[in-house]
Amino acid sequence: MSRVRIPPEIGRGLRDAAPVLLGVAPFGLVAGAAAVDAGLTPLQAVGLSVVVFAGASQLAAIDLFGSNAELLVIVFTGVVINLRMLMYSASIAPRFRVLRSWWKSLCAYVLTDQAYALSIARYADEELDPTERRNYYLAVGVSLWIVWQSCTILGIVAGARIPDAWGLEFAVPLVFLSLLVPAVSSLPTVVAAVVGGTVAVVGTVVSVPFDLGIIAGGVAGVAAGVAADAVVGGSGSTSEHGGEH
Question: What is the pTM of this model?
Fold first, then answer.
């Protein structure tokens, strides 16, 4: 009996994605459990995970659902968080130009930070034909999708059994902190985190209508980070020019 051979780039994609999957699994569990804790039914929680399929925006939406935010605010927050996907898609789209429309649609659906980062690194490593590029990307993206959805469902089942006394409502903020802290690695990111966090907290304390304080915090944080980066970059550029003269 002949063995079924897995195309090389699918195998390579699965191997490269394996370490990432270990990190994605706990977040999927938290997302599922937190969705149930926020008041979503298991079917709604699964539907949210399948339709959105974006960890950060999914967790943000769950947190807003739990605080009874307006639907428009929840949707807008998810859109803002996922705006980076526009840059990812613009960057990687030329690699998939020759693919058929339904392949492109599937690639767009499973686009994530990890799938983009691993695929761009792989494409830069050596020249691949369109089929090989597609195989690698989908191996990474689909494996991430399967693990995320599976862990979300496990989290939904487990979350429905967790007593309220365990304080599951703290899970989402803790996950966001674990994502935030490693990212705060320079002066602009520190400024963005401090300004954005302060505005969001103040907005919550003064009860800004429709929970818009969270969105205001995000906008203020981005603006402050960009301004700080411009100041730091400008100072560095001035110093360099000063050293030349």
Answer: 0.70
